[in-house]
Design goal:
This protein is of the alpha+beta class. Helices cover 44% and strands 27% of the residues. It has an 8-stranded antiparallel beta sheet with strand order 1-2-3-4-8-7-5-6.
């Protein structure tokens, strides 16, 4: 019986080892192909591209909470330049967190995601837009509401927070809500001067363009009176 079990476990271990090796090789190939695609995109759009780590991104944009989570934070695979007439930075981002089990042993978790930061051509106010999750609906039930809009479909699918609720309605009018309902979904946060669009995962190369298009679509649809009002405040 023992002689039969040993070859079985050996084969099981060998199969697992082969699986791990193949996964590593595939990951390496996929990463190399992605870097090649990013290099080509940067050349096509006349952007600068570097794979070097940047540990100051969080300090340049302290208003964006997604860049402040965890420890050992840095950006890499960074694209920057001008995209569709607006200053642009696209990058992958890393941070780490730790958890402790019942025995007191700590485990480090590495997190990776991609983001784009677009400079706004008009002064903005703080505003965040994200997909409504089941957890958000749970908290809404207990009165922790986000902002509700006339479009029930939009309110059901998006959570919106702003210090100035009137500002949220100015930016997210009917045309912009319709645009977002039919656009790829990203988490969005506006500061006074910039907007960041990100997901909790690494972008495919085409998603950089999609993210910029979503931000530009919101900015380009701002009503003229709102745009003029904000420009007058700046001056």
């Amino acid at each position: 019986m023992g002689a039969t079990i040993m070859p079985f476990f050996f084969l099981l271990f060998a199969a697992f080892f082969v699986f791990v090796v193949i996964s590593i090789i595939r990951g390496h190939i996929k990463n190399r192909e992605r870097l090649e695609a990013l290099t080509k995109m940067s050349a096509r759009r006349d952007l600068r591209f570097t794979t070097e780590a940047d540990y100051e991104m969080e300090n340049r944009f302290p208003e964006f909470q997604c860049l402040q989570d965890g420890d050992d934070r840095y950006a890499y695979n960074i694209l920057h330049g001008e995209w569709s007439g607006r200053n642009f930075i696209g990058f992958d981002y890393h941070y780490e967190t730790t958890s402790t089990d019942s025995d007191g042993d700590e485990t480090t978790h590495n997190h990776y995601f991609s983001a784009v930061i677009v400079e706004c051509d008009v002064p903005m106010k703080p505003l965040t837009i994200g997909e409504e999750s089941i957890f958000d609906r749970f908290w809404n039930f207990f009165g922790f509401d986000d902002i509700d809009f006339e479009s029930a479909e939009f309110s059901d699918q998006f959570k919106v927070h702003a210090e100035d609720r009137r500002w949220a309605f100015d930016v997210l009018h009917a045309r912009t809500m319709e645009f977002l309902l039919h656009s790829p979904r990203f988490s969005l946060a506006f500061s006074r001067t910039h907007c960041i669009a990100w997901r909790g995962s690494t972008f495919e190369v085409a998603e950089y363009e999609a993210a910029v298009d979503v931000v530009a679509g919101i900015l380009d649809r701002m009503p003229d009176y709102v745009r003029q009002q904000q420009l007058e405040l700046r001056s």
